[in-house]
Amino acid sequence: MNQIFLVEDDKTIAKNLVLLLRSEGFTVSHVPTRREALTALAGNKFDLALIDISLPDGNGFAVCTEIKKTQDIPIIFLTASGDESSVVTGLNMGADDYITKPFRPRELIARIGAALRKSGRSISDFKIHGLHVDMASGIVEKNGSEVFLSALEYRLLLMFISNSKSIITRGRLLDELWDAAGEFVNDNTLTVYIKRLREKIENDPASPQIILTVRGTGYRLGNEYASE
């Protein structure tokens, strides 16, 4: 799945953005300062950058410049209302878009999607063992028939798709489901969600091929996956 690089110093905005982006199936790396952003860029590759223009130790333009040196990815600036000169500067530096704070979540997601599609980095389809997930429409099919998932079951599935090459610990799943649900999700509840999801998407829930248990650690996605 697509990896978003978020550079934002406002803790509340950053927290809400991380939750929003993860709920849409993105993987997010967040840093609050220009210095940390430049350090993160040295050893990581991203698919899109969301950069606040005003940072506590400088501005987002320096981050934009560094990205353009090393990575050919879309850049969207987050800017204060009415700061037209900053917007023009950012676009002249090669930014793909900007969005003014405060912004509507759905508008931001739409702009991110548009930027990713334009750059050819958007991953909208995911297939594994007869399961087809169309993330553009939110439709899930199993062997050609539509599968109806609850909001949390779909969120759980997106987490595995977003981390298709990694083991996801039970602790991380609990933290992210708790945030998405807005209420406490305990260990027993997580087990129930995993069981229900397997019953809907696995050919044989008793011998899962899609969501595999890593004993003593958590879960991982099966190996035979494909994304488009």
From TrEMBL:
InterPro entries: CheY-like_superfamily, OmpR/PhoB-type_DNA-bd, Sig_transdc_resp-reg_receiver, WalR-like, WH-like_DNA-bd_sf. It holds the Pfam family Trans_reg_C. It comes from the Bacteria. Keywords: DNA-binding, Phosphoprotein, Transcription, Transcription regulation, Two-component regulatory system. The keyword Nucleus does not apply. SMART domains: REC (SM00448), Trans_reg_C (SM00862). Residues 123-223 bind DNA. The modification 4-aspartylphosphate is found at residue 52. Residues 123-223 form the OmpR/PhoB-type domain. This is DNA-binding response regulator. It comes from Paenibacillus odorifer.
